[in-house]
Amino acid sequence: MEEKKGIEVVISSIACRLPGNINSPNQFWALLKEGRSTNQRIPATRIAERDSLIRGEFNGGNVPVEGGHFLNFDLARFDANFFGLSALEASALDPQQRLLLECAWECVEQAGCNSPKDLEQCGVFIGFMSNEYPDLSEQQGNALQMLGTSASAFSGRLAHFLDCRQFFGDFLQILDKLSFKKFFSRGPTLSIDTACSSSLVALQMAVEAIRTGRCSRAIVGGVNLTLTAKGLAQRANAGMLSEDGCCRVFDVDANGYGRSDGCVVMMIEGVPIENLEEKPHWGAVECGHDGRSAALTAPNGLSQQQLLARCLERLNPEKRRSLRCWECHGTGTPLGDPVEFLALAKSLNSCGLTKGVWLGTAKANIGHTEAASGLVGVMKAREEIP
After folding, report:
1. Domain with 322 in it: what CATH number?
2. Does the active-site annotation cover 247?
3. Which residue range is the domain that position 338 belongs to?
4. Which among 41, 77, 238, 375 is most buried, taking Cβ atoms within 10 Å?
5. 301 membership: H or E segment, kind and range
């Protein structure tokens, strides 16, 4: 579809839940300025098998892992009645969806959407990756576990909440419908699982939907929770995790990332250029895939460089030359960091920069929120850019 001319995409509101008692963008920015880390020992209240994970004995043996980044409130805390759910339905609902509901509602309120007409042309785009709650729900024997934990329910639940009063459960395709139950959205609703890039791909698709007129605004979200020892052990045995949970980004001692809880939801909308005023807006958003690389999960430097080049080409030459900061993926892995750094260096060197560029990544502070990490980076960059 052809892009509408004279439209820029702006951020209307942001809501978040991050480790370190971070419940707003301002609190997140304060943590970054103070240089604090949210890394902690895996809480036994979250992972009952913590001690066997630390000893490397979980399920017959695993690479030891003892640290990470966790939300410090009870994930069962949820106002089911407000969202039109019974206590039984709420207990079967993946906690990741509970977080999305709460943050999406905050975004709707902050953006001043208090009339059904405000969301008639609103899309919903959710980045989602891990689905560990079924392992816990099976133990509960809940009759609603099929609806409450199946990954196929995640894409419609947000829009469903704001759009009607029915309950469709926890399938991936309805997750983004749930938060629209009290409103009347008729925009596109999608759930995206592209692993760690999920929320950024969701953002890219939302921006394109607005620019091509498929919707006038969109809720974009990403969510991630560490719920089981199995999820930690799988990543540790794959060589992904740092044993102590620290992300040593661009460091000679980089040895993997620390898993992190997190949820970030944004309301974005299309605004005529003449009405932009001082609102932050997108210069360019692009996504791509590595294609063939050394292994399925191995990064491809050339593909990354080509993607960065496409994104930079969409900026006018003056903006390219004046770049001052760059929020990186930067997971703290000995393979991924050098590949990303080299691709970025080659891309930026072709921009004719007038000054040096500061590189950063929020993962050094709050760990890797996986599917939500892209929007965490966007939230940070939004504060960095005056």
Report:
1. 3.40.47.10
2. no
3. 7-384
4. 375
5. helix 301-313
Q: How many domains does the chain fold into?
A: 1
Given a contact cutoff of 8 angstroms between Cβ atoms, the answer to whether 214 and 7 are in contact is: no
Residue 383 has a pLDDT of: 76
For residue 290, which amino acid is it? D
Structure tokens at 56: 């490397």
Q: State the Rg of the chain over Cα.
A: 20
| 1 domain-assigned | no
Given the residues 16, 196, 246, 263, the one annotated as active site: 196
Tokens of 77: 């805390």
Does the predicted model carry a pTM greater than 0.90?
no
Measured CA to CA, the distance from residue 208 to residue 220 in angstroms comes to: 12
Q: Give the Cβ contact number of residue 42 at 10 Å.
A: 22
**Cβ contacts of residue 271 below 8 Å, gap of 6+?**
7, 8, 9, 10, 279, 281
Residues 149, 136: Cα–Cα separation, whole Å:
10
Q: pLDDT tens-digit profile of 46-104? A: 999 999 999 999 988 889 999 999 999 999 999 999 888 888 888 888 899 999 999 99
Q: Is 329 a catalytic residue?
A: yes
Residue at 270: amino acid letter:
G
The amino acid occupying position 280 is: P
Could you give the residue ranges of the DSSP H alpha helices within 10-149?
A: 25-34, 50-55, 87-91, 95-110, 133-140, 145-149
Catalytic residue among 69, 113, 329, 351: 329
Residue 235 lies inside a defined structural domain of this protein: yes
DSSP letters for 321-380: HT--EEE------TTHHHHHHHHHHHHHHTTT-SS--EEE-THHHH-B-GGGHHHHHHHH
168, 132, 337, 385: CA torsion to nearest 10: 40
Report yes or no on 260 lying in a domain.
Answer: yes
Q: Which of 160, 215, 246, 368 is catalytic?
A: 368
> For tokens 């913590």, what's the residue?
50
What's the number of CA atoms in the CB half-sphere (13 Å) around residue 95?
A: 20
Closest CA relative to residue 54, chosen from 294, 256, 229: 229
For 301-345, how does the pLDDT look when each residue is reduced to its tens digit (9 = 90+)?
677 788 787 878 777 788 778 888 888 999 999 888 998 888 888
Handedness of CA 69, 196, 205, 166 (dihedral sign): negative
**DSSP codes of every residue in 155-212:** EEHHHHHHH-S----SBEEEHHHHBTTTS---S-EEEE-BTBTHHHHHHHHHHHHHHT
